[in-house]
């Protein structure tokens, strides 16, 4: 436990801390993950010479200091406050900068805003599973055109209505996860929490043969409806009802080496204790007008540090926001080393293919350091030999 981190008592998993002066690798998980989701990768990076730190993010696991209530203010869960969490943790650990910053799923935009806001502290960034399309922008060159015709945040409502008008009616998963009932639906599902989590992890992995992701042509109801029901749900169904038909067999569970029953039991125990509301707050942040307006502080600003995107070949997350991948490559990140989609991985890359992921991260870190670090060796700068 690291106390007093931006108002949090932050629970971390770490390795490589026994040796002084190691460079810091910071790993930020997503939903519904925990620091524990990095368990296969942490020793790989530590063996390569890093001090590896993976926190339970605000709202998750054993980190405390956040309010577990649907009606609590959302501002503490904003991306910029979660950037402050990361800055506070790096500082509390006695570092001036990270040598490796990796964000997965909802941790990906947090890592992206870290690199956008504080490139001095986060001199490279790896985004996983969720491409970063850039910060919300102010309309440009509109002074002579009068008031903009389209008001912000009407797009969400229009898309929801178009999805509901499909046959059968559908609903985007982020909309469902933002509802008041989502927490209780997932915390106390009819099949039990352990079985729900098993099905959720399975259906979003490369183990489920139904995952054949491909780019979508646009953010329309018809295009989005091509995604599996765990992304574009049947309207009126809960997430537990949505994934229940895909629960793996006893033989498939036994064959799952990347998430054994004992390992899944850690997730079951933690979410049984906390519920999901803290973890779900970030989805509500995405559609909050005030918190989106706050991000316009970075309107037009790009990520100018070395960056890299890693996805799973069987993960729809790469394409779930149509156009985001291309925007990241062409506009949002000016020094992108590339996009790598890992074979044999779905959404849970760090659990499904940790060896391949570790090799990619270490190669990118070496390349990024060669580009930017000529010899400023304060704590946290030194690289493994």
TrEMBL record:
UniProt keyword Hydrolase present: yes
Secretion signal span: none
Alphabetized UniProt keyword annotations: Hydrolase
Keyword Hydrolase on entry: yes
Database matches in Gene3D superfamilies: alpha/beta hydrolase
Single GO MF descriptor: hydrolase activity
Domain annotation AB hydrolase-1: ranges: 26-145
Name recorded for this polypeptide: Alpha/beta fold hydrolase
């Amino acid at each position: 436990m690291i106390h007093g981190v931006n108002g949090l008592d932050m629970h971390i998993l770490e390795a490589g801390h026994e040796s002084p002066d190691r460079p810091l690798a910071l790993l930020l998980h997503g939903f519904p993950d925990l620091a524990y989701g990095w368990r296969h990768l942490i020793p790989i990076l530590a063996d390569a010479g890093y001090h590896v730190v993976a926190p339970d993010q605000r709202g998750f696991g054993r980190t405390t200091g956040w309010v577990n209530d649907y009606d609590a203010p959302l501002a503490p869960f904003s991306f910029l406050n979660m950037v402050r969490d990361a800055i506070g943790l790096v500082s509390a650990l006695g570092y001036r900068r990270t040598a490796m910053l990796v964000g997965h799923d909802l941790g990906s935009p947090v890592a992206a805003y870290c690199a956008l806001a504080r490139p001095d502290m986060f001199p490279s960034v790896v985004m996983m599973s969720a491409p970063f399309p850039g910060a919300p922008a102010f309309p440009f060159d509109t002074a002579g055109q009068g008031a903009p015709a389209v008001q912000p945040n009407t797009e969400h409502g229009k898309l929801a209505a178009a999805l509901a008008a499909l046959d059968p009616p559908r609903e985007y998963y982020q909309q469902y996860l933002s509802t008041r009932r989502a927490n209780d639906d997932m915390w106390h599902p009819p099949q039990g929490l352990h079985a729900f989590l098993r099905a959720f992890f399975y259906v979003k992995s490369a183990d489920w043969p139904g995952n054949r992701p491909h780019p979508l042509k646009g953010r329309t109801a018809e295009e989005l409806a091509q995604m599996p029901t765990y992304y574009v749900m049947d309207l009126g169904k809960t997430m537990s009802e949505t994934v229940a038909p895909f629960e793996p067999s006893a033989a498939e569970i036994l064959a799952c080496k990347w998430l054994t029953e004992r390992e899944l039991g850690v997730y079951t125990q933690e979410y049984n204790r906390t519920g999901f509301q803290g973890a779900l707050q970030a989805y509500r942040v995405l559609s909050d007008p005030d918190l989106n307006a706050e991000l316009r502080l970075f309107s037009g600003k790009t990520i100018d540090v070395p960056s890299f995107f890693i996805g799973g070949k069987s993960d729809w997350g790469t394409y779930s926001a149509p156009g985001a991948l291309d925007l990241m490559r062409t506009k949002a990140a000016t020094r992108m080393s590339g996009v790598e989609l890992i074979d044999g991985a779905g959404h849970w890359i760090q659990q499904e293919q940790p060896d391949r992921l570790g090799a990619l991260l270490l190669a990118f870190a070496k390349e990024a350091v060669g580009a930017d670090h000529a010899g400023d060796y304060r704590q946290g700068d030194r690289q493994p030999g």
